[in-house]
Amino acid sequence: MAVLTPLPDLAAYRRRAARHLPRMVMDYVEGAAGEERGLDRNRAAFARTLFVPRRLTDVSRREAGVTLWGRDYPLPLAIAPMGLTGVLRPEGDLMLARAAGQAGIPFCLSTASTSSIEEVARAGDGEKWFQLYVLHRDQARLFVRRALAAGYTTLILTVDVPVNGRRLRDRRSGFKVPFRLTPRIALDAALHPAWTMAQLRHGLPQLASFASAEAADASTQAALLNRQMDAGFDWAALAELRALWPHRLVLKGLTSAPELARAEAAGCDAVILSNHGARQLEDVAAPFDTLRSVQGRTALPLLLDSGIRSGEDVVKALAAGARMCLLGRAALYGLGARGEAGVREVIAMIAAEIDTTLALLGCPKARDLGPEHIQTEAPPATDRPDGLSTQPQRIRA
């Protein structure tokens, strides 16, 4: 078998994924809420943050590893919980889990997975976390018990989806699982024969964790696909969940310092600062900006997702106080482009970028990153009222 050469950058994996996947699937991967200003905001937060390198520092040996909850990880990365990955590649969850395990980083399984809780638990010996959507309390308790029995080490409760965001791309494309065959979707599939044949060979994706006799409930599956969550789930309900789960409990989707204080008081073990990849409420702060604003205001470990596309982004997040970063769309670009091999390549690429950035920054250990290594870019200069520009004059040779 020929050995594939890794693609040069994440943009190349995105382009390859876009060629392989039908338009409606790529739109599902890339889409966000409303007019998608949140996507730009997430990326802009990283772009306006600059490095402050330290020179004449011995960086001949670098260490990208971090420690979380007393455990050492070789990289400050995890694979974020992402639903319906089987629409990109059959057994997409298993591919992501195996690639994460090979890299020694955690994999987070979504409630909306297309492989079951138990199937993913058997996919290699990597560390696995389970992300919970609460649709109905009894169903949530069942999933928690299944994750516990299957050996998941961490439970992630996503709290920013009381209802579905206004995802216009999915509305326009008619994206749903199971797929509803329309002339437009049929044409889209016909134009992507490799994807279509793979889906037909393996069977169209379904919500696999709902397929058991206990969990099978068509109304609950429909509620999940439409993001019709338990909108009454509150801090009191969280206390019940905390009592049910004996291991680490993480809240995903908090956005403010007062919420962090409540999470700490509720016995949570960490928080993932996230705006759901800008897929829920369009005009909220970028999680990276939130991270910088709450730095030092909680004892809880802070993890970060939304907008991370490179090793440079990861280093900036660690310098701003994050303990670990979760890869979402970046991992899906690898999955869509080349399946499991593509995910491994994307993780390796970002790991290499982290290493290079640490060397150029003059900070050989990721654990030593701090706010002194970054600064906010000054806003662009504007013209003075007298008509003279405040921009520095460039001296011509």
Give the structure's gist in a few sentences.
The chain has 15 helices and 12 strands.
What attributes characterize this protein structure?
oxidoreductase, disordered C terminus, alpha/beta, 15 helices, TIM Barrel, 397 residues
- Based on CA atoms alone, the radius of gyration comes out at 22 Å
Percent of residues in β-strands: 5-15%
Strand order of the largest sheet: 4-11-10-9-8-7-6-5
Can you say what the CATH homologous superfamily is? Aldolase class I
Structure overview:
The structure is a single chain. Mean pLDDT is 91; it is low at 387-397. The protein has 397 residues and is an alpha/beta fold. An eight-stranded parallel sheet has the order 4-11-10-9-8-7-6-5. The protein has a two-stranded antiparallel ribbon with strand order 1-12. Strands 2-3 form a two-stranded antiparallel sheet. It has one domain (10-376): Alpha-Beta Barrel (TIM Barrel). Helix 1 packs antiparallel against helix 15, helix 4 (92-103) runs parallel beside helix 15 and helix 14 (311-319) packs across helix 15. The termini are far apart. 41% of the residues lie in helices and 12% in strands. One of its GO terms (cellular component) is plasma membrane. Glyoxylate binds at residues 28, 133, 167, 276, 279. Its cofactor is FMN. Residues 388-397 have a biased composition (Polar residues).
